[in-house]
Each structure stands twice: as C-alpha cells, then as structure tokens.
Amino acid sequence: MYDHTMSTIISAVQDFSLLASVQLALVVAVTVGFLVLFKPLLRGCVRAAVLVVKPKLSKEERLQRRQMRDAMMLKRMLNRNECNPSHAAELRAMASRA
Questions:
Q1: Separation between Cα atoms, residue 33 and residue 56, nearest integer Å
Q2: What is the mean pLDDT of the chain?
Q3: All structural domains of the chain with their residue ranges
Q4: Residue by residue, what is the 3-state secondary structure of the chain?
Q5: pTM over 0.90, yes/no
Q6: What is the C-alpha separation between 64 and 30, in angstroms, rounded?
Q7: Which residue has the higher pLDDT, 55 or 74?
Q8: CA-to-CA distance for 16 and 9, rounded, in angstroms?
Q9: Distance (Å, rounded) from C-alpha 71 to C-alpha 94?
Q10: Phi and psi dihedrals of 16, rounded to 5?
Q11: Comparing 65 with 5, which gets the higher pLDDT?
C-alpha cells in the first residue's frame, strides 16, 4: 500500500510541469489583481446586499428601541432589588422619569 501511494505521489509531481506552475501563478496573480482593483465595488455590493436583508432603523425606531431596552433593564433591576426598599424607590423614580 505504501509503495503504491508513494509511486502515485511521485508520478503526480513528475507530471506537474514548469508551464503548469507558471499558468497557476498567472491565474492567482490575475485573480488577486482583480480583487484589489474592484475592492471598493465589491465592498459596496456587499453593503447593499446587507441593507436589503437587514435595513437600517430610522432615528425614531432606534430611540424607541433604546427606551424599551432601558425600561426592561430598570424592570429587571427592580425585580432583583425587591428586598432593599431604598433601591427600589430610587429605581421607580428613575423609571418614571424615563
């Protein structure tokens, strides 16, 4: 088994010519060149695709989401600190202002 595998590897290396390696290097160089040249365009296409899938929230929606998150956090803090009346009163006062 070992001899068969070794002979297969040796024959594959012998079949790999200088011309094939030069062609491979050229293909890699051209591909990298296109990626570098069109990087801004590709980046813009990716951003556009992301916005299609997940649109940006408006300023009002972000504000509402932040207020909801803050209210939920205050509620969790209130539930956690039920044993301490002074903390609970302070958190209730903060919640009423928010």
A1: 33
A2: 81
A3: 1-56, 57-98
A4: CHHHHHHHHHHHHHHCCHHHHHHHHHHHHHHHHHHHHCHHHHHHHHHHHHHHHCCCCCHHHHHHHHHHHHHHHHHHHHHHCCCCHHHHHHHHHHHHHC
A5: no
A6: 49
A7: 55
A8: 11
A9: 10
A10: -80, 105
A11: 65
Question: Is 65's pLDDT higher than 70?
Answer: yes
Residues 6+ apart with CB under 8 A from 81: 87, 88, 91
Query: Using CA atoms, how far apart are residues 72 and 67, in angstroms rounded to an integer?
Result: 9
State the pLDDT at residue 17.
Answer: 76
Distance from first CA to last CA of the chain, Å, rounded? 76
